[in-house]
Automatic annotation (TrEMBL):
Residues 361-542 form the Helicase ATP-binding domain. GO terms for molecular function: ATP binding; hydrolase activity; nucleic acid binding; RNA helicase activity. GO terms for biological process: endonucleolytic cleavage in ITS1 upstream of 5.8S rRNA from tricistronic rRNA transcript (SSU-rRNA, 5.8S rRNA, LSU-rRNA). Pfam families: DEAD, Helicase_C. InterPro entries: DEAD/DEAH_box_helicase_dom, DEAD/DEAH_RhlB, Helicase_ATP-bd, Helicase_C-like, P-loop_NTPase, RNA-helicase_DEAD-box_CS. It is found in: Nucleus, Nucleolus. Residues 61-101, 109-133, 154-166, 173-183 have a biased composition (Basic and acidic residues). Belongs to the DEAD box helicase family. DDX5/DBP2 subfamily. Residues 283-304 have a biased composition (Polar residues). Residues 577-725 form the Helicase C-terminal domain. One of its GO terms (cellular component) is nucleolus. It comes from Dactylellina haptotyla (strain CBS 200.50). This is RNA helicase. Residues 33-46, 134-146 have a biased composition (Basic residues).
Length: 756
C-alpha cells in the first residue's frame, strides 16, 4: 500500500468514530479544568467547594439540600426499645452510633433488673456486673503480682513448693477420712448395731506397712450365738493388729469377703477401713450393692418392709435366693444412691416412690435382669428410666461418645404415642443429670433423615420395633454396646406380631450375660413367659397386686360397668347418652376427658363423625391417619381443648393422659388383656376412674374371662352377662390352634454326640 493511500485513510476517518471520541475528549477536558480550579482554591486558602445553585425539580419545591446547617438531634431517651432497634430515615452516622449506644445501655439495665429480681427470689445477695468485673480484675492482678514476686525460682525450689502443697492437701484428706469414719461409727451405734472400727492414725511421713494375713489356724472361730474365741491360745501381740485389720477388710464368720492384699500403704488401708465402715447393714435382703459404683442406700428395717409389702401386695421372686422373705425396698427418694441430688429433680412433685419403683430400683441399680408386673398407671416408666440414666452417669467419658461406641440404652415400645411419652420422661431425667441431647425417639410415619442424624448423637434410643429394625438394616443405628435394654408392654412385644422384630433387635445387642434386660407390663400371660426366659439371665420377678398364676387383674380404683345390649345397632345412641349423663353428673365436668374405644379404624372414624354431628368437640386416633395428625390430636386431648377422643387400640397401652375420668368400650377388644389395658387409661396415679363397656352376643366368647376380671376387682357382675357362661376360652397357638400342648415342663432330650 502506498504512502499516499495511507495518508488519505488517516485524513478521512468515518463519522461514527469521530462522534464516539468527541464526548470522551470533552469529559477529560472538564476534569482537567476542575483539577486546576481546586489547585487555585487551595493556593488561595479557600476550603469551600464551589457549589452550583440549587434548582428545585418538579414537585420537589419543598425539599432543600444539606447546606451544612446543624440539625436537631433526636431525643433518644423518649424512644422505646423497638424504635431504637430500627434505623430511622435520613439518619446520620453520628446519630447511628448514639442510638446503638443507648440501645446497649437499655439492654444492660434490663439485664441488671432481671438479675436483681432473680437474686431476690433465690434469697441471695445481688452482685452487679461491674463489681464482678472489678473482682476478676483484682484477682488477676494479685495472681500476676504473686508470679512476679518469685521471679528467680529454680526447678528444685519449684518442685519443693509443689510437694509442700501436695502434703497439705494429703493431710486435709486424712483428716476428712477420720471425720467420716467417726460419723459412720456414731451412726452405727445409734442404730443399735455395734461394729468394731479401728482408728488408723496416719503419720506425716509416708511409710509403707505390710498387712500380715493370719494363718488358717489363727483365724477367729465364730460361735452360733455370735461370740468369738481364738483357736490359738498363744497368739502373739504382733499378730493382733493384723487380725483386726483383716476383720475390717471383710473377714466375718471365718470367711473373707474379699482377698487381702499382701502389701499396701497406709493410705490404702485407711480407704479400705472407710469402705468397711460405710457399708450398709443387711436386713435379710438378697439385693447386692450397686454395680455402677454408687453406694447402696441403707434400707428400712425388716418390719417396715414386711408391712409395706403386705399393704401393697408386693411379691418378689429371686431365683438366686428363693427362700428369702425380705427384700431391699427404697421407700424414700432420699435413699436413692445418686451422684448428685439434682438428679432427683423430676421427682420433686411426688412424696414417695410407687410400689413398683420401691421394689425394683435396688435390683436394677445392682445390674440384675427383672420382670415387673404392675397395674396400669403405677409408675413403671420411671421404674426403668431412672436406673438407666444412673447407669449412663457412671460410665467414663470415653464410653459416652455415641459416635464411637453407639447407644448404651435401648427402650422399645409397641406404639408411637407410647414411645414419645417414654422419651419425654427420659429427657427430663437426662437433663437433670447434665446429659444434653442424650436421648432420641425413633418411630414410623415421619421422615427418616432427621431421625438418622439424631441416632449418631444419642446415648438412649426410645423406639418402636419396625423403624428401629429399618435403621439396623441400613447400618444407621449402632446398638452393639447397648447393655441396658427395656421392653415396655412386654406381653405385646413378645406376641407373634412383634416376636421376629424383637429377636432381631436383641440379637444386635451384647449377649445375655453382658446385657441387662428388663421387661415391664401390666399383664403377664403364660403364653409369653417361656419366650421371655430365653432373653434373660435368672431374672427377678416383681409382682404388684398381681396373682402368681398369671390371671388378669384390673385396677381396683376403676368402677367397671358392663351393659349387655340385645341389639348392637343402638350402640351409638347409648354412647351419646353415657357422655351426656357424665357431663350432667360429674362435678369436674369442665376438665374431665372421655376416651372412647372402637375395634376397627372405619368404626372409629364413623363414631367420630357421629359425635361431631351431635355438637360434641371430638378428635380421633387410628392407623389410617398420618403421624402429624395423630400427634396433634393427642396433644389437643391432653391439653383439654378436645375433651372427647375416639381411638382404636393404638391408644390402649401405656399412654398417661391426665384427667381421663371415663373410658367407654363401644366394641369389646379381641383379647381380655387389651380390655385391661383399655380401662387402665383412667384411674391412674391413685385417682379414681370409671369404665363402661357395651357387650353383645358377638362377644360371648370373652364372657368367662370378663367375669373373672370383674370378680378379681370386686366389681358387680350383671345377671345378663352370667347367661353367656363362665367358661374361659383356651388360648390358641399360632400353628396348632386350641389343640396345642405346652411342653415347657417336659424333660428335655439328651443330645448324643458320636466320635468321628
Amino acid at each position: 500500500m502506498s504512502k499516499k493511500r495511507k495518508a488519505e485513510e488517516t485524513d478521512e476517518m468515518p463519522a461514527f468514530i469521530s462522534q464516539a471520541n468527541a464526548p470522551r475528549e470533552t469529559e477529560t477536558n472538564d476534569r482537567k479544568k476542575d483539577k486546576k480550579e481546586k489547585k487555585k482554591n487551595k493556593k488561595k486558602g479557600d476550603t469551600k467547594k464551589s457549589q452550583k445553585p440549587w434548582i428545585p425539580a418538579d414537585g420537589d419545591a419543598e425539599t432543600k439540600p444539606d447546606d451544612g446547617t446543624p440539625r436537631e438531634k433526636p431525643d433518644l431517651e423518649k424512644l422505646n426499645t423497638y424504635e431504637l432497634k430500627h434505623k430511622p430515615e435520613g439518619e446520620k452516622k453520628g446519630d447511628k452510633y448514639a442510638r446503638q449506644k443507648e440501645l446497649r445501655k437499655r439492654k444492660r439495665e434490663e439485664k441488671e433488673k432481671f438479675e436483681e429480681y432473680k437474686a431476690e427470689v433465690e434469697g441471695r445477695e445481688y452482685v452487679p456486673d461491674d463489681a464482678k468485673k472489678r473482682e476478676r480484675k483484682e484477682k488477676k492482678e494479685r495472681k500476676n503480682a504473686a508470679k512476679k514476686g518469685q521471679p528467680g525460682l529454680s526447678k528444685e525450689e519449684k518442685k519443693k513448693l509443689s510437694e509442700e502443697r501436695k502434703e497439705k492437701k494429703r493431710a486435709a484428706r486424712k483428716e476428712a477420712k477420720k471425720a467420716e469414719k467417726k460419723a459412720a461409727a456414731a451412726a452405727a451405734a445409734a442404730n443399735g448395731e455395734e461394729e468394731e472400727v479401728e482408728e488408723v492414725v496416719m503419720s506425716d511421713a509416708v511409710e509403707t506397712t505390710k498387712v500380715v494375713e493370719p494363718a488358717v489356724e489363727d483365724k477367729m472361730d465364730v460361735d452360733s450365738d455370735g461370740s468369738s474365741s481364738d483357736s490359738s491360745d498363744s497368739e502373739s501381740e504382733d499378730e493382733k493388729p493384723a487380725a483386726k485389720k483383716s476383720k475390717a477388710n471383710g473377714v466375718t464368720n471365718g470367711k473373707s469377703k474379699r482377698p487381702a492384699e499382701p502389701e499396701s500403704d497406709s493410705s490404702d488401708s485407711s480407704e479400705s477401713d472407710k469402705e468397711a465402715a460405710k457399708a450398709p447393714k443387711s436386713n435379710g435382703s438378697t439385693a447386692p450393692t450397686t454395680a455402677n459404683g454408687t453406694a447402696s442406700p441403707i434400707p428400712a428395717d425388716s418390719t417396715t418392709i414386711s408391712s409395706y409389702m403386705t399393704t401393697h401386695s408386693i411379691k418378689i421372686t429371686d431365683p438366686k435366693a428363693p427362700d428369702t422373705l425380705h427384700s431391699n425396698l427404697i421407700l424414700s427418694f432420699s435413699d436413692l444412691p445418686t451422684v448428685d441430688k439434682a438428679h432427683l429433680a423430676p421427682f420433686s412433685a411426688f412424696k414417695t416412690p410407687t410400689p413398683i419403683q420401691a421394689a425394683s430400683w435396688s435390683y436394677l441399680l445392682a445390674g440384675r435382669d427383672l420382670i415387673g408386673v404392675a397395674e396400669t398407671g403405677s409408675g413403671k416408666t420411671m421404674a426403668f428410666a431412672y436406673p438407666a440414666v444412673q447407669y449412663l452417669t457412671q460410665l467414663p467419658k470415653s464410653e459416652r461418645n455415641p459416635k464411637k461406641t453407639g447407644a448404651k440404652v435401648v427402650i422399645v415400645s409397641p406404639t408411637r404415642e407410647l414411645a414419645m411419652q417414654i422419651y419425654e420422661q427420659v429427657e427430663l431425667l437426662t437433663k437433670a443429670a447434665g446429659l444434653k441431647d442424650a436421648a432420641t425417639c425413633i418411630y414410623g410415619g415421619v421422615p427418616k433423615d432427621p431421625q438418622r442424624d439424631s441416632l449418631s448423637k444419642a446415648l438412649v434410643i426410645v423406639a418402636t420395633p419396625g423403624r428401629l429394625n429399618d435403621f439396623l438394616e441400613e447400618g444407621a443405628a449402632n446398638i452393639s454396646q447397648a447393655r441396658y435394654v427395656v421392653l415396655d408392654e412386654a406381653d405385646r412385644m413378645l406376641d407373634k406380631g412383634f416376636e421376629d422384630a424383637i429377636k432381631t433387635i436383641l440379637g444386635a445387642t451384647p449377649v445375655t450375660p453382658k446385657r441387662q434386660t428388663l421387661m415391664f407390663t401390666a399383664t403377664w400371660p403364660q403364653s409369653v413367659r417361656q419366650l421371655a426366659s430365653t432373653f434373660m439371665t435368672t431374672p427377678i420377678r416383681v409382682n404388684i397386686n398381681s396373682p402368681e398364676d398369671g390371671d388378669l387383674r384390673a385396677n381396683t380404683r376403676i368402677a367397671q360397668t358392663v351393659e349387655v345390649l340385645a341389639d348392637g345397632r343402638i350402640k351409638e345412641s347409648r354412647l351419646l347418652n353415657v357422655i351426656n349423663a357424665h357431663y350432667r353428673t360429674s362435678p369436674t365436668a369442665k376438665s374431665d376427658r372421655i376416651l372412647v374405644f372402637a375395634l376397627y379404624k372405619k368404626e372409629a372414624a364413623r363414631l367420630e363423625n357421629f359425635l361431631r354431628a351431635k355438637g360434641i368437640k371430638v378428635g380421633g386416633i387410628h392407623g389410617d391417619l398420618n403421624q402429624h395428625t395423630r400427634t396433634t390430636t393427642l396433644a389437643e386431648f391432653k391439653a383439654g381443648r378436645t375433651p372427647v377422643l375416639v381411638a382404636t387400640d393404638v391408644a390402649a397401652r401405656g399412654l398417661d393422659i391426665p384427667n381421663v375420668k371415663l373410658v367407654i368400650n363401644v366394641t369389646f377388644p379381641l383379647t381380655i388383656e387389651d380390655y385391661v389395658h383399655r380401662i387402665g387409661r383412667t384411674g391412674r396415679a391413685g385417682e379414681l376412674g370409671k369404665a363402661v363397656t357395651f357387650f353383645t352376643d358377638h362377644d360371648k366368647a370373652h364372657s368367662g374371662s370378663l367375669i373373672n376380671v370383674l370378680k378379681a376387682a370386686k366389681q358387680d357382675v350383671p345377671e345378663e352377662l352370667m347367661k353367656f357362661g363362665t367358661t374361659v376360652k383356651k388360648k390358641e397357638h399360632a400353628s396348632y390352634g386350641a389343640f396345642y400342648r405346652d411342653t415347657s415342663d417336659a424333660k428335655t432330650a439328651t443330645k448324643i454326640k458320636f466320635d468321628d
